[in-house]
Design brief:
With 255 residues, this protein is α/β, with parallel strands linked by helices. The chain has a domain of 134 residues: P-loop containing nucleotide triphosphate hydrolases (Rossmann fold). It is 36% helix and 25% strand. It is built from 9 helices and 10 strands. The protein has a 6-stranded mixed β-sheet, sandwiched between helices. It has a 4-stranded antiparallel β-sheet with strand order 2-1-4-5, covered by helices on one side. The protein is globular. The chain starts with a strand and ends in a 7-residue tail after the last helix. The C terminus is likely disordered. The structure holds adenosine-5'-triphosphate and magnesium ion (MG).
Length: 255
């Protein structure tokens, strides 16, 4: 099933057409990669799906519902979460506090004050247990009480992921999750992405490392100058000479 679909979506910034009449569909429970040269429009597509910027033309559907130009918090509430390329953790807070905050959604608790004390305590306890479980899942066990700023860059990415998972999203948009991360943590991230997909989450990721792409993606979209230039299974896309030439600067076999 297509969980997210873009229909003829366009977005321009001044004179720059960042996304040009793009139609694409993302399958539920699969890992789909967006690849393509710098400036191809990959991050802009994530920004459009998550409502951070407005679509000029076209429509975006989530499970058949038109979500075009809803507010970011509305889209997030529907079940689409986002892992940003830059790390967004609260540096002074501990690992555990950061993960627990991933659950915090003011819209869900408008009548907090009316909640019985006991119920609040129960929710807090459940959130704490869930957070501890997720910290373990991403491999940060033992660091629960460490301030986020004391973690390495890669560990902070894992922490961001744990926090994202606290949000119980169905779809995860991950913008270059492995960029700048130590190879050991890249391995861990790959393993986690596979496990998340196995547990039913839909993963859409942007990635420049073709080894990673070919290892985990079920399907690829190759973007170029704001358009879908090609799509297919990783072996077909990455094996295509034209794409190799455009993307990796690798000439044809004869040169
Ligand atoms: N907020 C913005 N304001 C103006 N121009 C923008 C904005 N966001 C993106 N662009 C432009 O839109 C085009 C597509 O950018 P985008 O960030 O989507 O590319 P990308 O494929 O993610 O590239 P990279 O691989 O370098 O991250 C680029 O020309 C970029 O300069
Ligand atoms: Mg980008």
């Amino acid at each position: 099933m297509e969980i997210i679909s873009l229909k003829n979506v366009s977005k321009a910034f001044g004179g720059v057409i960042a996304v040009n009449n793009v139609s694409m569909g993302f399958y539920s429970g699969k890992i789909t990669g967006l690849i393509g040269p710098n400036g191809a429009g990959k991050t802009t597509i994530f920004n459009l799906i998550s409502g951070l910027i407005k679509v000029d033309k076209g429509r975006i559907y989530f499970k058949g519902e038109n979500i075009t130009n809803l507010h970011p918090w509305e889209i997030s509430k529907k079940g689409i979460g986002r892992l940003f390329q830059d790390i967004r953790v609260f540096k002074k807070l501990t690992v555990l506090e950061n993960v627990i905050l991933g659950e915090y959604n003011p819209a869900e608790y408008p009548y907090n004050i009316l909640f019985k004390f006991k119920e609040i305590k129960k929710i807090e306890k459940e959130n704490r247990e869930k957070a501890i479980e997720l910290i373990k899942f991403v491999g940060l066990e033992g660091k629960e009480n460490t301030p986020a700023e004391n973690l390495s860059y890669g560990q902070q990415k894992l922490l961001s992921l744990a926090r994202l998972l606290m949000g119980k999203y169905e779809v995860l948009l991950m913008d270059e999750p492995t960029a700048g991360v130590h190879p050991d943590i890249v391995k861990k991230l790959i393993e986690l992405m596979k496990e998340m997909a196995k547990s039913g989450k839909t993963i859409i990721f942007i990635e420049h490392n073709m080894n990673i792409v070919s290892e985990i993606a079920d399907w690829l979209f190759f973007l170029k100058e704001g358009e879908v230039y090609d799509m297919g299974k990783p072996e077909d896309i990455l094996g295509d000479e034209e794409i190799r030439r455009i993307y990796m600067g690798i000439g044809n076999a004869k040169t």
